[in-house]
Amino acid sequence: MHGQPSFLKHSDENLRLFLQLQGFMQNTYLDFASEFIELKTFNLPELSINKKDVESLKLPNYLRLGNRLERFFSFIIQQSNEYELIAENLQIIEDKITLGELDFIVKDLKSNQNLHVELGGKLYLYFPENVKDEDQWMGPNKMDSLHRKLKTLKEKQFPLLYYPKTIEILHNKGISVAQIEQKVCFKVRMFLPKNCNKIPSYVKKENIFGYYISFQEFLNPDFRNHLYFMPEKQDWIVEPKNGEVWFSYDEILPQVMEMHKQNQSPMLWVHKGETIETFFVLFW
Question: What's the pTM?
Answer without folding.
Answer: 0.93
